[in-house]
Amino acid sequence: MKSSLAPGIRLITSFSRDSWYRGFTLFLTFLFYTAYHLSRKPISIIKSELHRNCSSVIPPADLNITNNATWCDWAPFDQDNYQTLFGVLDNSFLVAYAIGMFFSGIFGERLPLRLYLSAGMLMSGLFTCLFGLGFYWNIHSLGYYAFVQVMNGLMQTTGWPSVVACVGNWFGKGKRGFIMGVWNSHTSVGNILGSLIAGVFVSSAWGMSFIVPGVIIASTGILCFFFLVEKPEDVNCTPPQHHVSGTESEQESDETEPLLRNSANGTQTINGAISTEVPEIVEEHTEAIGFFRALCIPGVVEFSLCLLFAKLVSYTFLYWLPLYISNVAHFEAKQAGDMSTLFDVGGIMGGILAGLVSDYTGGRASTCCVMLVAAAPMLFLYNYIGQRSLGTTVGMLLVCGGLVNGPYALITTAVSADLGTHESLRGNSRALSTVTAIIDGTGSIGAALGPLLAGVISPTGWNNVFYMLISADVLACLVRSPSLPHRNSRLFDQACLQGNSGLVQTSPPSQRIQRHLNKSHNQTGNHTNTTQKGNGTRSDLTSAFQTKRDDSGH
């Protein structure tokens, strides 16, 4: 007689082999990108240490002080234009990141993700450590720190397209919003850990605030090399279903499909009858798609612009919130860094909430717009009443973090994966990395502009910085508003038609009419399914545009 299994063993055996691999991949990619963000955060924590109010600091007895206000500052940040110099450091990283991101996805499609990601983390760890070593090598050159930031920005572009492509390979579209909302908390978790680690060393030896995160991300790169599995097929697991079939496919929201439907509900009128087509099995395409073909995917341009403004707000908080808290609330560097982590805690909750709501409603764009509209007045309130008491500060940081990072998290994860596995690309498993890179690369332009503008505007007053952030939130909502007309210009249509060979291939209109006649015949009592096949193929985009011209009389 067999003895009963222990509860833990029953739990383990209740999951299939596929589930274990999916969970393991989700955990690894979560860990990897946590390390990426962990290594980005220290620069925002040490700003208040590089330039301090030295008049309140007791100097060593053997130190000959020539300037009582700047003797403890780290040159060259001891000057009056220190905020501009901080902006130079931020933008050295962010501009390089934004430019590199557009190329990173292209490389990611053509190179093994495991090797590409591992090399990127190792090199990122190297340059993060080099920044911290400037403290021990007593380097006071702005050019040195700016160069290290540029190189680190380029290396960090290897991360996001790779991890999103890997997760997209393993998970289908069903509950992608919730799964990726939880998974995307790695951004906030990395920011929190980076703040806490940097805060430990910031007042004693700020160089270690960079060296420790650098060692951590390099270690995760080694872990990636030994354990990451890029695709389910590599270990004989079942690939996920990226597209629903039949009528379910035709009932999807057109928030990310403005161009591919002949009508709003995916039906056609033929000889007065309504026909709903069953999608055909398509030929698989494994070649990587080009940059412009990825832009032709409906929704890519709109969500990219939305992310540009959303990321502008998020990254301004990422790089300037500790300094703002230190200046306005008069906290020490470590206390300001610890307090700023509440914004990221709110970001975790906001990302999960955005994913749940978008899964339930089926509206990614609507979810983003609602949260962006709500974020604008909350930013205004935080600036005016956020520092009145500790309880108010905590509450406002949590709410603002959720509303600001919720849309940002949704677009960079679930929306990017949806578009990268769009129906027009069915059979092409190598497009996700490029689509993700385009969206996040455009967003990174905003990420570079935000801290730059904050550095320029902050000397005129923090109120003006918040007005800039509120305006960016409103613009993010406007460019992705569902009420705005989708791209339908004849010029754009023709350009996409000329370069759409990487998109899904289906039968020409003559074959679809024949299938409709066969279906009508079957509905009258004849259940024999006759399939007509012809020569040549044409993309869904071509069919959609042709139908549009026929309906308009051209």
TrEMBL record:
Bias type Polar residues, positions: 503-512
Alphabetical keyword list: Antiport, Endoplasmic reticulum, Glycoprotein, Membrane, Sugar transport, Transmembrane, Transmembrane helix, Transport
Catalysed reactions, as listed in the record: D-glucose 6-phosphate(in) + phosphate(out) = D-glucose 6-phosphate(out) + phosphate(in)
Entry's Gene Ontology molecular function annotations: glucose 6-phosphate:phosphate antiporter activity
Transmembrane segments: 20-38, 84-103, 115-137, 143-171, 183-202, 208-229, 300-321, 365-385, 391-411, 431-453
Membrane topology reported for the UniProt record: Multi-pass membrane protein
Ranges of Low complexity composition bias in the record: 521-537
Cell compartment(s), UniProt: Endoplasmic reticulum membrane
Residue ranges of every copy of the Major facilitator superfamily (MFS) profile domain listed in the record: 28-488
Domain of life: Eukaryota
Gene3D superfamilies: MFS general substrate transporter like domains (1.20.1250.20)
Pfam families: MFS_1 (PF07690)
Residue numbers spanned by region Disordered: 239-266, 503-554
InterPro entries, sorted: MFS (IPR011701), MFS_dom (IPR020846), MFS_trans_sf (IPR036259), SLC37A1_2 (IPR044740), Sugar_P_transporter (IPR000849)
Example GO BP: phosphate ion transmembrane transport
Main location: endoplasmic reticulum
Keyword Cell cycle: no
CDD domains according to UniProt: MFS_SLC37A1_2
Record bears the keyword Transmembrane helix: yes
Assigned protein family: Belongs to the major facilitator superfamily. Organophosphate:Pi antiporter (OPA) (TC 2.A.1.4) family.
Record-linked PANTHER family: GLUCOSE-6-PHOSPHATE EXCHANGER SLC37A2, MAJOR FACILITATOR SUPERFAMILY TRANSPORTER 16, ISOFORM B
Annotated protein name in UniProt: Glucose-6-phosphate exchanger SLC37A2
Organism listed in the record: Menidia menidia
